[in-house]
Amino acid sequence: MLNIFTLANGRLFQEEIESLEELSQFQPIWVDLESPTVEEKRWVAQYFGLSIPEDAMDEDIEESARFYEEDNGDLHIRSDFLLTDDEVSHTVRVAFILNQHNDQLKSRGVLFSIHEEDVPVFRLLRMRARRMPGLIEDAKDVLLKLFDADAEYSADTLEGIHDALEETSKQVLAGDVTDEVAGVVLGNIARQEDMNGRIRRNVMDTRRALSFMMRSKMLGAEQYEEARQILRDIDSLDSHTAFLFDKINFLMDATVGFININQNKIIKIFSVASVALLPPTLIASIYGMNVQIPEVQALGSAAYPYVMALMIASALVPMWYFRKRGWLK
Question: pTM of the full predicted structure?
Fold first, then answer.
């Protein structure tokens, strides 16, 4: 899918392009390629004179492969954007190419973005740019606003994680944590920990991209200050992710502690039962010996009830003692 964005009266307007002739009718500041076809790449190469690298979507993590400037002045930035839903979260790799001076279009530059699936941050920026005149003035503003929206999206996701952990805290701190409840709680905690880790990685990647833009001296004074403000917001997100990691660790330890308590209760029951049955076992061993026992001979037919009553009494006495000491609670 090939979408272009033009500025008109200070607003950003979107057009979906289906042919090279249609593309030549516009002067965009942003060209977005979502899962582009070979034909769409050919249109971009033919009209803009831009060749999209074959490794644009590779998973390289070295800074030299993700942030660099070509001899013609084009800036290449590969950044990750967070995508979350109720069940699954992952990052989407986006390759940006900022053509700062496009003589053919007589514009102040064009931003090209290439990615494999729709990104929520892109939708958020499109909505804001349509409703807020003057929000974007050139291609560099588009890139900055995307990173700003990404930081905000991460902040909103962190709030969702915090709310989810608050609900989990109520379950754990209620005290009545059965093994079934503990299993559900541990699953929830694991999901929130994974999400929190992805956000931390995402904001780290955004920080690196912004730092590269600031070092490249491509930004104006106002844009440079805006980039610094985004970095300050990211620093606050780092602190919040660290707080959430601590909360996650606490809830994990508390849940595991309740599991251990439940297991100890079961082990205590077996221990008490085994101790209580030791005296009857001893009595049964004594009176079960193949020897002449005087009291058995003297009791005659009453020997069996006597031995059974003695065994029962020897089991009840330890149970009474354990209960009196509070060991059965």
Answer: 0.75
